[in-house]
Specification:
589 residues; alpha+beta; 5-stranded mixed beta sheet; 17 helices; 25 strands; 20% strand; globular; binds ligand LR7; binds manganese (II) ion; polypeptide N-acetylgalactosaminyltransferase activity; glycosyltransferase
Length: 589
């Protein structure tokens, strides 16, 4: 989900939507944490996740005493209304040291009161909605955590209490997944016992991972509705009414808030866009994409209405408790972190429910660039082990696509027994993955029977089209389409899907697009986010092998001046050899 944050930080849009939060924001620059981690395909794995020794051995200054100390000395006005915290210069070395414990600016967090105020970031129209809450079922808020900092955990709890109508709140359940920090023991029990909403801490005896910890919390819950949060969130006004009302209206809905950003460096509350939905990429990593034009059209009347989403981010959602268990809760053989969000999204959609995002519910989440805790067994084994389970149980023929292009998953495939989950799928008479792709996510860019999937090769140079490795402001690959030597093993960066309606797409919803006319001196054909616009439509003529850009009636060509390293161009179609392209299918399963 770390990449998801980077995607959200589109500066252009932030300026437009978020002027008030940004103007006083002077980010504190910390150590150069790995921003992203890129795997063999040049595709993001768990972006930013710390791949080294998670025990902090690289920071010998982090003694047990520091790890267990509970600094907590808030200043009354710090971080007020979601404003950023600015640490005085003389504290900066201490600040850096503390940063490593949780991979966020702990000093900043500890200076902010646990009950800080936040702005109402909703659209005006939301204030008139979801006010009729008498008689709605109550919810149990479930927060699982492993070695969370005191101030972020309890700020989450206070934000729930302060900004939820108490008639909707049954209780708060904190599930401690075998934390080792002292202050999360008796000190926490004592603290929560005096809160105005019944709050309990349940503890596991050994580390069971967030998935099983959530199942445990759900079993213990007394509320009719389960509302899950990560342990470093802050809820804003109206967040719960918007979720609970929708679940109460239809018990098969899984409702997510819009997830705003709490800065890991300054703890500023940054409103994010409302017009993104959740899905995933070819590696089965969660991604945000802009919602489709059709969906936007439907919503023009009232853009604050909830909209359905192919997948959820995972941590923040409300769902009926009976529906949660009827549908098979979670896959309890998933370990530690990852994959459960797609598993649940597929299961909910394919087995008769729906996943939606409510623009009137805003909850902030603290996004980190790397993960602070250990992954027993190793990050790759844990994450891909979980994803293997998702693919085997829910994805039908598309699992073969996943395994074919993800060797780390293929290696783990035989180690994952999934019989009971397949039986669950049968018992619930769930629909196929094809139905899911066709119906829930028709804008998807996965290969299908009626699409071309493979390489696009220039005949005269014998080279293949490749998507650029440079990133645009949405952290998506963006730039000129390049021609490079064709890889002998099919690599995903050279794979394209050509849809029947003429869009040429690749992973992460990136499409072949026309050049910008004002690019000087010679405009290049680009790849950028698929928009569904005519300017991204192409047609391929099998006879003369021309790849024609439909709206301009020009053909994909090599630059006449030989500046091929700068990318490809469009020229009037003349059937010359440089304009000949073959679409070479690659079996995708
Ligand atoms: O072993 C563990 N035991 C735990 O109890 C590991 C983690 N946890 C707790 C942890 O303390 C935290 O409260 O589980 C919660 C989630 O872990 P994070 O905060 O490290 O996860 P994340 O925010 O990086 O990741 C997202 O994807 C996860 C995949 O398993 C979960 O679904 C997280 O809930 C999810 N977070 C969100 O959806 C928040 C918004 C992200 C976006 C966009
Ligand atoms: Mn989180």
């Amino acid at each position: 989900c770390l990449i998801a944050m980077l995607v959200l930080l589109n500066i252009g849009e932030l300026q437009e939507e978020n002027e008030t939060h940004r103007k006083d924001w002077i980010p504190v620059r910390l150590s150069k944490d790995q921003r992203e981690y890129v795997d063999a395909h040049g595709v993001h794995v768990v972006v930013g996740h710390y791949m080294g020794d998670p025990s902090n051995s690289g920071n010998p200054n982090l003694t047990d005493e520091i790890l267990n100390s509970n600094l907590f000395a808030p200043l009354p006005n710090e971080g007020k209304d979601g404003m950023p915290v600015i640490i005085p210069a003389h504290l900066s070395s201490k600040m850096r040291q503390l940063y490593h414990i949780n991979r966020f600016n702990l000093m900043a967090s500890d200076r902010i009161p646990l009950n800080r105020s936040l702005p109402d970031v909703r659209k005006k129209r939301c204030q008139g909605k979801y006010n009729d809450i008498q008689g709605l079922p109550k919810t149990t808020v479930i927060i699982v955590f492993h070695n969370e900092a005191w101030s972020t955990l309890l700020r989450t709890v206070h934000s729930v209490i302060n900004r939820s109508p108490s008639i909707l709140l049954q209780e708060i359940l904190l599930v401690d997944d075998a934390s080792t920090r002292k202050f999360l023991g008796k000190e926490l029990d004592d603290y929560v016992s005096q809160l105005s909403i019944p709050t309990r801490v349940i503890r596991t005896t050994k580390r069971i991972g967030l998935i099983r910890a959530r199942i445990l919390g759900a079993k213990e819950a007394n509320g009719q509705i389960l509302t899950f949060l990560d342990a470093h969130c802050e809820c804003t006004i109206g967040w719960l009414e918007a979720l609970v009302t929708r679940v109460a209206e239809d018990r098969t809905r899984v409702v997510c808030p819009v997830i705003d950003i709490i800065s890991d460096e300054t703890f500023a509350y940054i409103r994010s866009f409302e017009l993104h939905w959740g899905a995933f990429n070819w590696d089965l990593h969660f991604r945000w994409y802009t919602i489709s034009g059709d969906e936007l059209k439907k919503r023009r009347k009232d853009i604050t209405e909830p909209f359905s989403s192919p997948a959820m981010a995972g941590g923040l959602f409300a769902m009926d408790k009976n529906f949660f268990f009827a549908l098979g809760s979670y896959d309890d053989r998933m370990e530690v972190w990852g994959g459960e969000n797609l598993e649940m999204s597929f299961r909910v959609w394919q087995c008769g429910g729906s996943v939606e995002i409510s623009p009137c519910s805003h909850v902030g989440h603290l996004f980190r660039k790397s993960s602070p805790y250990s992954f027993p067994g190793g990050v790759t084994k844990v994450l891909y082990g979980n994803l293997v389970r998702v693919a085997l149980v829910w994805m039908d023929e598309w699992k073969d696509f996943f395994f074919k292009f993800n060797p780390e998953a293929e290696r783990l495939r035989d180690l994952q027994p999934v019989r009971s989950r397949i039986e669950l799928r049968k018992k619930l008479s769930c629909k196929s993955f094809k139905w899911y792709l066709d119906t829930v996510w028709p804008q998807h860019f996965f290969p299908t029977e009626d699409r071309f999937f493979g390489k696009i090769k220039n005949v005269v140079r014998g080279e293949c089209l490749e998507k650029p490795t440079s990133k645009g402001s949405l952290n998506q690959p963006m730039g000129p389409a390049l021609l490079v030597p064709c890889a002998s093993n099919p690599v995903l960066s050279q794979m394209f899907v050509m849809e029947t309606d003429g869009f040429i797409a690749t992973d992460e919803s990136i499409c072949l697009d026309a050049p910008d006319k004002d690019d000087t001196p010679s405009p290049r054909v680009k790849v950028l986010a698929c928009s569904g616009n005519l300017r991204q439509k192409w047609s391929h003529n099998k006879k003369n092998r021309a790849l024609k850009h439909i709206s301009s009636d020009l053909c994909l060509d090599l630059p006449k001046d030989g500046s091929i390293e700068k990318g490809l161009v469009l020229n009037p179609c003349d059937e010359s050899v440089t304009q000949q392209w073959t679409l070479e299918p690659v079996p995708w399963r």
